Amino acid sequence: MVDFGAQYAQLIARRVREARVFSEIVPSTMPVEEMLAKRPRAIILSGGPASVYAEGAPTLDRALFEAGVPVFGMCYGFQLMATTLGGTVDNTGAREYGRTSLAVSKPGSTLFEGTPAEQSVWMSHGDACSAAPEGFTVTASTDVVPVAAFENDAARLYGVQYHPEVLHSTYGQQILEHFLYRGAGITPSWTTTNVVEEQLALIREKVGGSRAICGLSGGVDSAVAAALVQKAIGSQLTCVYVDHGLMRKGETEQVEKDFVAATGVQLKVVDAAERFLTALAGVSDPEQKRKIIGREFIRVFEQAQAEIVAAAPDDQPVEFLVQGTLYPDVVESGGGTGTANIKSHHNVGGLPEDLQFQLVEPLRQLFKDEVRMVGQELGLPEEIVQRQPFPGPGLGIRIVGEVTRERLDLLREADAIAREELTAAGLDREIWQCPVVLLAEVRSVGVQGDGRTYGHPVVLRPVSSEDAMTADWSRLPYDVLAKISTRITNEVKDVNRVVLDITSKPPGTIEWE
Ligand code: XMP
Question: Which residues does the entry assign to the active site, renumbered to this chain (predicted)?
Fold first, then answer.
């Protein structure tokens, strides 16, 4: 997957994986020889925000199309293929945006076979291809674009003007699969079972007779990574769980009980609540809180490591550190084109480079939904595998204002009620997550029982999202919201108001801090 605009590339890579073909994203700036050196069975060129005529617009070496590797261009990738190979792309100002009707002129073509002559596709472009390069057959058009798809079976080059990766393109997945299976002749064989087997072998080979440790956060990623490594090397692995006192109700107990029961892993739980609360005393600034939590986390973890190392028998040194790094993390850190630092996301396993451990990151190639499938395959309980994301700094960044023990207790109660009701209403899978935020420095007047109260509001922040990069506020049923509100104001002392956050991301981030 050659990435011409980060927004699309990850989604296309996911769709390719859904077609059970392994895919890897590379930046469009990578030299073509380097791309070819990876020996791809097929190459996909993504869409991107640029016009092929814009100054500094990304280009591609013609050699990519002449290497005998099947190529599929989408949107910008399609136009680039057209211009590079001698076709015509006009800057006519004929824009097409949104759902468009595509007229397929060659219904039996490699890409379109078995799909209707008229189909709905998602367009988003300014320039338009008016003539295909020599040797190509035009296979579809729209009212605005004469060449909306072209194919060259002899050279195994294909392209579509639209975005097959988005669900609005009704037959998009089929067209992508047609390219992969028919155009490129790939047999779909990439499954989570294969991933698990391959990783088990790799981990055993890498770790050998040595020992490994893993920081468990209670989240899906570190749990699945730990379970995988545990399955590979058994008692050579020790997991460390740092309880920073910013966890939700029942969370530590769940890790201690459910995770250990499911995996039989050796677990070291460090109770560091006092330490974190002391370090956070008097701090209200979100970035400062995040940095303090990150720093303390590393210190506690290092200490735990030292203890494990000290207790390890001489002939079995602890050489490896297991982390639940996912593919989007890898892509985002590799993509590094000056993305703004919105907030200091603290990676729970993120440790300083001078630590003397080699990393084991068995999930580096996987997306979140694939990690969940691996977790299922390993027999982890649903409560762990389907857990919604929870930030490393925990409730510490859900209290707007200073973090204190009393405020944490209060928020923990409100959060537990919201989670209980959302689960009872069967909404857990529908929403991405629902942070509950305590506005600790805001007070409002209420009337509860017979008297006046002067308490704090909590905010419900239910969001739906595919990858947390963007999110929409979830339209929760009113009766569920009503129940949560009634219960929180009745059951949580000092909270006399529940408000609903109806902001998407952007402009609001998911967490308040
Ligand atoms: P934001 O607030 O940036 O959050 O829209 C996006 C997603 O990331 C989670 N999040 C974090 N996860 N460490 C984490 O492990 C962090 O520091 C952190 N901050 C936010 C957040 O819950 C959401 O799912």
Answer: 75, 163, 165
Kindly state whether residue 152 falls inside one of the protein's structural domains: yes
Residue of minimum CA distance from atom 20 in ligand 1: 391
* Inside any domain, residue 513: no
Element (DSSP H or E) covering residue 311: helix 286-311
Cα 10 to middle of ligand 1, angstroms: 19
Domain range holding 136? 2-183
Could you give the ipTM of this predicted complex?
A: 0.98
CA distances from 91 to 30, 53, 114, 145 (A): 27, 8, 33, 12
* pLDDT per position as a tens digit, 483-493: 999 999 999 99
Q: Is 338 annotated as a binding residue?
A: no
CA of residue 71 to ligand 1 center, whole Å: 36
Q: Which residues contact 186 (CB under 8 A, 6 or more apart)?
A: 21, 41, 42, 180
The pLDDT of residue 375 is 95
Among the candidates 183, 201, 225, a domain finishes at: 183
475 and 421 in a common domain: yes
pTM of the model: 0.78
What CATH number corresponds to the domain at position 419?
3.30.300.10
